[in-house]
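Crash report, auto-generated. Payload:
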Amino acid sequence: MASTANTFRNQPDERGHFGDYGGRYVAETLMPLVLDLEREYRKAQADPEFRREFDDLLEHYVGRPSPLYHAERLTEALGGAQVWFKRDELNHTGAHKINNCIGQILLAIRMGKTRIIAETGAGQHGVATATVCARFGLPCVIYMGAEDVRRQSPNVFRMKLLGAEIVPVTSGRGTLKDAMNEGLRDWVANVEDTFYIIGTAAGPHPYPEMVRDFQSIIGKEARAQMLDRIGRLPDLAVACIGGGSNALGLFHPFLDDREVKLLGVEAAGHGLDGDEHAASLLGGFPGVLHGNKTYLLQDEDGQITEGHSISAGLDYPGIGPEHAWLKDTGRVEYTAVTDEEALEAFQLLCRTEGIIPALEPSHAIAAVAKRAKEMPKDSVILANLCGRGDKDIFTVAEKLGVEM
Amino acid sequence: MTRLSNAFSKPHPALVCFVTAGDGDTAANLDALVEGGADVIELGMPFTDPMADGPAIQAANIRSLNAGTTTADVLRIARKFRERHPEVPLVLMGYANPMIRRGPDWFANAAKEAGVDGVICVDIPPEEDDALGPQLRDAGISPIRLATPTTDAKRLPQVLEGSSGFLYYVAVAGITGMQQAAIESIEANVSRIKRSTDIPVAVGFGVRTPEQAAEIAEVADGVVVGSALVELVGKHGADAPAKLSELTAGLAKAVHSAAKGAA
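Recovered output after restart:
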């Protein structure tokens, strides 16, 4: 751990760097736009009215604060630490993604933008974006890899119901990173009227900081709820990581509580020893993609390789730059969980708690299951349940060999 | 005088031609561009995620990578080109990640050793110059920056600072190979830029025909053509060199007969 750091909560620097990571690696055409976005975000941060509107929508539209729940039957089944869940799967649209979309669309409106674009993988961010666009009456174009359009048809239909235009992306291999490329290509050609709502804590500065700030409501609430319910902070906080927005949202308010250990869980897919995983931090190397410097799945020539995970939401070859920095400083520990372990954890939570989790937080639950057993019964684990599993039942049925 | 400054000191505007390395028989393709009259060669380094490129160059990147092109292959193509054409300036164009993968020093030195004169890195703006700029300058390679319709007067000095060789003016806010900008807008922007610098200004993005090239050559120091050439490589494969040479000759004639310094 960096002994010189007095706080872990003052990143990034004024150039958008988290240590060596982050930054603004974008084409010149976009550079004035990201600078403008940063200026407008600073103004919004300083404006109490912006905060008030954000908080009001989170309360009355999203349904915040989300509950903090003591999972007693799961705790009993694991036989170790007390497990508590932050229930962000109970948000409107069923995942944490909406927190960020509310913040960004309010900013877009402040900036006078009249058209919204976004990328999506599993479709959760696409649904959340389409939702806020419907709520505010703005046209919305969602870029989604053609392969993901096929795999996630219920979410595609949801987005269409909400009035979004879905553009299937066939360039590259037709997955999330290609959708993000296409989003950037759209933005560069529509610089005047378009606002790009990036779904995770990655991309050029100020996106990683901004998305983290909007998602930090998760950790702020959870921290206060813990103190309120049990009079102390958890010993360990756990969240899954694709791009890393739900994990940063949970972790950031705890970063300077040194007694709280933090654990980020990447997708190990078929295992970290092969190429079939999506663990950028544990199995990748630093590089530059999509506007920021961070850990990437890539070959020795810097060509980006495809991630694999049972969970389409974790299937991205990069990771938010703040996680890259938190890994190097040692403040957050990172581990990975395989498809199979996540699938087991998914079923465990269904049966012990009557909660069907998304496959993304099933990775966090699998890590919780391992750690809880090694911890004393009076210790406390807090995990973020960042999405509900309705969208995943077809994938799970297929894996379990069940015909639907 | 460097090879790049020589190319822009000719009595006529310069024709800058782009093809992707490892797409087709690149050596033969490059020779065809020189034979057709290209003054500067841009050699594209293939990348899995070419965010700033339109369909034509995206497809070229995929063809090249599917053929197994490595960074070593790109540098070998450059070195052999330098052996065959000692005087023709050669610029590598691509994205940051393949360039910095082994470290910026490694790349700058390897490019220098291969006889490369300049490097255009699409996703390293002046704000991130530290990532590669100092290493290129130390190796004696020109970092060639891009200016765009969104680069306002306030930003322009920052873009020019530390760049050399030529300035690449991106005529449209958009990706490569799509629509062409109105000549009035190009003329206004190029003359705005030229008031701030002595570096030659070449204009690209959306330039496909000799007619368009001639029009731009009247107002700029150079004209860049990429997608139209890359499409020929995609369409004609092994027979591409003859087609490239033919299109380049038409472009060169148009560009070279424009009045120098009209801007």
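Post-recovery validation: Chain B has a mean pLDDT of 96.
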